[in-house]
Automatic annotation (TrEMBL):
The gene is LOC111282926. This is alpha,alpha-trehalose-phosphate synthase (UDP-forming). In the N-terminal section; belongs to the glycosyltransferase 20 family. In the C-terminal section; belongs to the trehalose phosphatase family. One of its GO terms (biological process) is trehalose biosynthetic process. GO terms for molecular function: alpha,alpha-trehalose-phosphate synthase (UDP-forming) activity; trehalose-phosphatase activity. It is an enzyme of class 2 (transferase). SUPFAM superfamilies: HAD-like, UDP-Glycosyltransferase/glycogen phosphorylase.
Length: 755
């Protein structure tokens, strides 16, 4: 059945999905003096009353994710749905980072299909009982959106898997992309039902909803909007293969704050913005910011944490104590190595097993003494890759157990079922080492959980029959390619593809002296316990509040169509010239001075042809023909080029090389700024510039009469910028005693005389 909130792909294709109904304005239009802006654009200082739901002046945190933090089950006898909170959901746990009086509303989909006839009733119940707003995606749309574009295209790409051929990943499908947009639009519609845009904060989660910021920003120009990506963000070399790369980047930049787990992920995102959109970033008092059409989009780098209380409660649960005793009895004093992974191609389970095989092969004395317990969580997606990974896991496990096992001893215990949380905590508490060997993973909280469980609780100590004051120890072997690796400085970091190195790392971990294990554990526990999920949520929200402080101190205009929509944010002192006022002033004056820039005004920056068009020449001649007008071209270009290009303009004045040379008309002589014409410094500067030009592919030197300019706009953005910094420093040193100024501009380094 089709959902009431469904938007058809025909609407998408026609562009109607970007047409939102207008709302009543709360803030009056801005009045200015005649000749300046007479009123603010109708979509500018808006975000006023929305509906009855938003009339209450109560600050809300609206948490938006693909799925709601709920369990749903239908009673077959009563034919009635029952719902309950998912206590393991990160979305639910992050509430601990907000103040007690904060109203938290969740927007997302249910993991079950609800018939259209039941959707109104379910929506009412979920809002009243759980503060949840469900987005009912039609089954076909849900399949194309989640299983199609998200799981078969975005997720592999963000994990560095390119669709080189149909057997290894799906090629880009425009219909799946349209489904992705339609789904994001439905999420935006649901947010609009509950948001008070002047007071509420919206926090969007993960790659399923990356274009959602554009829909919200178009509707509410000053919406307080944060986004956190829980997956890796790939390098620009991978990301740039995405056919809709610019659309997604521009959509993300409509957020006020964008969060990543690691600096690597943030660095890749910033590199993509630089290479594909030409945006530069800078650190502003410790916070990374991107200037985007007058708005500052901030970048947050902080890995998510775990819920300490949830883990400690599980450790104190009677079932955990019972399970610990069973495990101790089963393995009879053998050293346990634990691994907990989803069954998918990126978790590196088979590589971990190969390392275990190598460990037992190289260290015969460990046979019978060491057991790897590998817990396999159910796969979150389906596909041939998952089935192949599962088959390989079972084959290697069987081979290891057949080769190194004997009656009463299995080197690898594979638990391939849904394991209760208390059972996992029991294995964590007993394992001497935890290994996470993923080849690529956004974060992975398994090491954090393992550390907390090894710290234990009083009830777990009783079950293990150890003194509460006894030292705690833990050892971690973690892949370099997971998000939690940078925060675990005491872990043994490994390249999962190097099986020998992983085997050596595991051997080092289980044979390390107890004192060193204790010190590493204490270091990790201090970090994990202080950087929990509440700390993460609180820190992100504080930064979001700071990022939104200037929302109402600037003038805003919405520009662009579709996914190219963005906000142009300007200072309150900005005044837009009125064409009518300019024409009126022009007509009533008897003397007019008109100064025109060249590059970017007369000729577009992106134009390959730098000479003016015949239409421009005609317009300039018309202006110059009026005796009341004095018209000048002011440019940094040289006098020879400008003279040739404007040879047809007899009465046009030219200020070349930023005014170093001036000519009042075609028939007049060039005048020079009166100061010493000592250009001996060029003999020093030019060889240095040539050195950097030869070392920087795409750069070139523009020699002028009064200056030398090194350009790097055609070089690699990162390398060109780096070389420009070095050149600036180099020239300042060698020209320290010369009467010149060395300065860096937009993709240039220039040396010119002091004036």
């Amino acid at each position: 059945m089709v959902s009431r909130s469904y938007i058809s792909l025909l609407d998408l294709a026609s562009g109607d999905m970007f047409n939102f109904p207008q709302t009543i304005r709360k803030i009056p239009q801005v009045m200015t003096v005649p000749g300046n802006i007479s009123k603010v654009d109708s979509n500018t200082l808006n975000d006023g009353d929305f509906d009855a739901l938003s009339s209450e002046c109560c600050e809300k945190k609206i948490i938006v994710a693909n799925f709601l933090p709920l369990h749903a089950q239908k009673d077959l006898k009563s034919d009635r749905w029952s719902f309950s909170f998912d206590e393991d959901s990160l979305l639910l746990q992050m509430k601990d980072g907000f103040s007690a009086d904060t109203d938290v509303v969740y927007v997302g989909s249910l993991k079950v299909d609800i018939d259209s006839s039941e959707q109104d009733e379910v929506s009412r119940r979920l809002l009243e009982e759980f503060n949840c707003v469900p987005t009912f995606l039609p089954p076909e749309l849900q399949k194309k959106f989640y299983e199609g574009f998200c799981k078969q295209y975005l997720w592999p790409l963000f994990h560095y898997m390119l669709p080189m051929c149909p057997d290894y990943g799906n090629r880009f499908d425009r219909l799946l992309w349209q489904a992705y947009l339609s789904a994001n639009k439905i999420f935006a519609d649901k947010i609009m039902e509950v948001i008070n845009p002047e007071d509420d904060y919206v926090w969007v989660h993960d790659y399923h909803l990356m274009v959602l910021p554009t829909f919200l920003r178009k509707r509410f120009h000053r919406v307080k909007l944060g986004f956190f990506l829980h997956s890796p963000f790939p390098s620009s070399e991978i990301y740039r293969t995405l056919p809709v790369r610019d659309e997604i980047l521009k959509a993300l930049l409509n957020a006020d704050l964008i969060g990543f787990h690691t600096f690597d992920y943030a660095r890749h995102f910033l590199s993509c913005c630089s290479r594909m959109l030409g945006l530069d970033y800078e650190s502003k008092r410790g916070h990374i910011g991107l200037d985007y059409f007058g708005r500052t989009v901030y970048i947050k780098i902080l890995p998510v944490g775990i819920h300490m209380g949830r883990l400690q409660s599980a450790l104190d649960h009677p079932s955990s104590s019972t399970k610990v005793k069973e495990i101790v009895e089963r393995f009879n004093g053998r050293k346990l190595i634990v691994g907990v992974d989803d069954m998918d191609i990126f978790k590196g389970i088979s590589l971990k097993l190969l390392a275990m095989e190598q460990l037992l092969h190289q260290n015969p004395e460990l046979r019978g003494k060491v057991v790897l317990v590998q817990i396999v969580n159910p796969a979150r997606s389906t596909g041939r890759g998952v089935q192949e990974a599962k088959r390989e896991t079972y084959e290697i496990t069987k081979r290891i157990n057949d080769t190194f096992g004997f009656p009463g001893y299995e080197p690898v215990v594979l638990i391939d079922r849904r394991v209760p949380f208390y059972e996992k905590t029991a294995y964590y508490a007993l394992a001497e080492c935890c290994i996470v060997n993923a080849v690529r993973d956004g974060m992975n909280l398994v090491p954090y959980k393992y550390i907390v469980c090894r710290q234990g609780t009083s009830k777990m100590d009783e079950a293990l029959e150890i003194a509460s004051a006894s030292p705690r120890m833990s050892m971690l072997v973690v892949s370099e390619f997971i998000g939690c690796s940078p925060s675990l400085s005491g872990a043994i970091r490994v390249n999962p593809w190097d099986v020998d190195a992983v085997a050596d790392a595991v051997n080092m971990a289980i044979t390390m002296p107890d004192l060193e294990k204790q010190l590493r554990h204490e270091k990790h526990y201090r970090y994990v316990s202080s950087h929990d999920v509440a700390y993460w949520a609180c820190s992100f929200m504080q930064d979001l509040e700071r990022a939104c402080k200037e929302h109402y101190s600037k003038l805003c205009w919405g520009i662009g169509f579709g996914l190219s929509f963005r906000i142009l944010s300007l200072s309150p002192s900005f005044r837009k010239l009125s064409i009518d006022h300019i024409v009126s002033a022009y007509e009533r004056t008897c003397r007019r001075a008109i100064f025109l820039d060249y590059d970017g005004t007369i000729v577009p920056h992106a134009s390959i042809i730098k000479s003016p068009s015949p239409e421009v020449i005609s317009v300039l001649n018309n202006l110059c023909s009026d005796p009341k007008n004095t018209v000048f071209i002011v440019s940094g270009r040289g006098q020879n080029s400008l003279s040739d290009w404007f040879a047809q303009c007899e009465n046009l004045g030219i200020a070349a090389e930023h005014g170093y040379f001036i000519r009042w008309s075609r028939l007049s002589d060039w005048e020079t700024i009166p100061h010493a014409a000592d250009f001996d410094w060029k003999k020093i500067a030019e060889p240095v510039m040539k050195l950097y030009m030869e070392a920087t592919d795409g750069s070139y030197i523009e020699p002028k009469e009064s200056a030398l300019v090194w350009h790097h706009q055609d070089a690699d953005p990162d390398f060109g910028s780096c070389q420009a910094k070095e050149l600036l420093d180099h020239l300042e040193n060698v020209l320290a005693n010369e009467p010149v100024v060395v300065k860096r501009g937009h993709q240039i380094v220039e040396v010119k005389p002091q004036v």
